[in-house]
Design goal:
This protein has helices at 2-11, 14-45, 48-59, 62-73, 78-98, 103-116, 120-131, 137-166, 168-187, 210-222, 225-254, 263-266, 268-284, 289-308, 310-317, 326-329, 334-350, 354-364, 370-398, 401-422. It is an all-alpha fold. The chain has one domain (2-193, 217-422): Growth Hormone, Chain: A (Up-down Bundle), CATH 1.20.1250. Mean pLDDT is 78; it is low at 193-205 and 431-442.
Length: 442
């Protein structure tokens, strides 16, 4: 209840409300756009390798440019950046509207859209501490991650499948264009000009010192083990979303034998589970932030194994009483009912990852380096994800989706073990180690 009250207090602030709306609308449009393109490319090429190339196209710009993003964000006002990036992505959606029949043209436009949106998430995250006091950071991060998770699920599970099924790709691209324009409107209303935590430009040109400044922020980050662990957890979390987006269309077709645009029904419990997980997150954090993330990772690994073994489990279920046959109750197949029952807990456990890890970085990042720290998170996530994203398509095409899910489950379980081993013990992780901070606007 206390968390709900704090969230309402945050949303009563017009500036934070505008940032929250811009974030939620833009990220919903971005995720819906990505999933729609994945379905379109899979239909054109009939290959998971090409869907991996599409995701690669979305993250490729962050590798050469991401290192400069954080430094630039620390030197400029972030609100105009949010407006410009949203308007640029709206223009990209119009290009998709006219040109989406050839996969290579899609990849080229995807690179330009990804480049224009490269500044958005780091700008949003680095603005949060400028809008709320330290005491409200957990509540603000909870709301941010609730919106992030909700936008991912809304875009991938609901908006894209429903629009593709009802109005087709053309209607989907036009809808995404409108959503990005609306997000730009709300970004213009954040109005936190001349951030006091903004770094001073180095000597000479404004951008000549970018490599040096980025190295400084990287050294500040890696010198703190708790920040490194939190960064790794956030990298894994964002990678899981990309992998999930790649695998859903293939899973729907190969395992459930239904069109990918039926994902709105089958994976709807994921969103419900995530909302429940975020509601119970304050209770879990009593065990410590790091331990909460470990629980989330372990739970996701178990759910992915269950999704991989859904066909053998169906065989066991069919031997049970006829009263338990989902075709008699929900008018869906046993496979679909089982996937829905596993999707809910997976959303629940995923909700336990982002908020604790993001809060650790917010608490420990020097204010003058926030843009660089969170840009480092995005760049690192994208760079580390490159090989797995490409391998996912190759392994899925060469073997099958079941083997891929089991491999992913094993890797996630290994990450949970490393987090438990390297992270602080619950009794010590919240020991305050204050850094020098700039003024906080409330």
């Amino acid at each position: 209840m206390r968390q709900v009250v704090r969230s309402r207090t945050l949303l009563a602030d017009r500036r934070f409300l505008s940032l929250w709306l811009s974030q939620g609308i833009a990220q919903t449009a971005q995720n819906a756009l990505l999933f729609s393109l994945l379905v379109i490319v899979l239909n054109i090429t009939n290959s998971s390798i090409h869907t991996s190339i599409l995701v690669f196209s979305f993250i490729l710009p962050s590798i050469p440019l991401g290192f400069a993003v954080g430094v630039i964000l620390d030197r400029v006002d972030k609100e105009p950046v949010l407006v410009i990036t949203n308007l640029a992505r709206a223009g990209g959606c119009l290009l998709f509207f006219f040109f989406h029949s050839d996969e290579w043209v899609i990849y080229a436009i995807a690179v330009s859209v990804a480049t224009s949106g490269l500044f958005f998430n780091p700008a949003v995250v680095s603005l949060i501490p400028s809008l709320v006091s330290r005491e409200k950071l957990v509540a603000a991060n909870s709301l941010y991650n609730l919106t992030l998770t909700g936008a991912q699920l809304a875009g991938i599970v609901f908006v894209a499948p429903i629009l593709l099924k009802s109005v087709g790709p053309d209607g989907m691209f036009l809808t995404a264009t409108v959503l990005f324009i609306i997000a730009a409107f709300f970004a213009a209303r954040v109005n936190v000009w001349h951030d006091t935590a903004k770094a001073e430009p180095g000597r000479g040109t404004n951008f000549g010192g970018i490599p040096t400044e980025f190295r400084e922020s990287w050294r500040a980050l890696v010198s703190d083990r708790r920040s490194v662990v939190a960064l790794g957890q956030l990298i894994l979390s964002s990678s899981l979303v990309l992998l999930f987006a790649i695998l859903i269309p293939r899973y729907m077709r190969d395992v459930l034998e239904v069109p990918a645009d039926n994902a709105a029904l089958i994976f709807a419990p994921t969103g419900i589970g995530a909302l429940i997980g975020l509601r119970f997150l304050p209770w879990f954090t009593r065990f410590g932030k790091n331990r909460t993330v470990v629980i989330g990772l372990a739970g996701i690994a178990v759910c992915m194994v269950l999704l991989a073994l859904v066909e053998p489990i169906e065989g066991v279920w069919e031997k049970g009483p006829d009263e338990l046959d989902p075709t008699n109750i929900l008018r869906i197949s046993a496979l679909q009912a089982l996937v829905m029952s596993f999707a809910g807990p997976m959303g629940f456990f995923y909700a336990l990852i982002n908020v604790p890890a993001q809060t650790v970085l917010h608490e420990r990042a020097p204010p003058e380096m926030r843009g660089r720290i969170f840009a480092t998170q995005v760049v690192s996530a994208n760079f580390i994800s490159l090989i797995p994203l490409l391998m996912v398509g190759v392994i899925t095409d060469l073997l099958n989706i079941t083997v891929m899910l089991i491999i992913l489950a094993a890797l996630i379980a290994g990450a949970a073990f490393l987090s438990e081993t390297l992270g602080p013990s619950p009794g010590k992780e919240d020991t305050p180690e204050p850094r020098e901070r700039g003024p906080v606007h409330t």
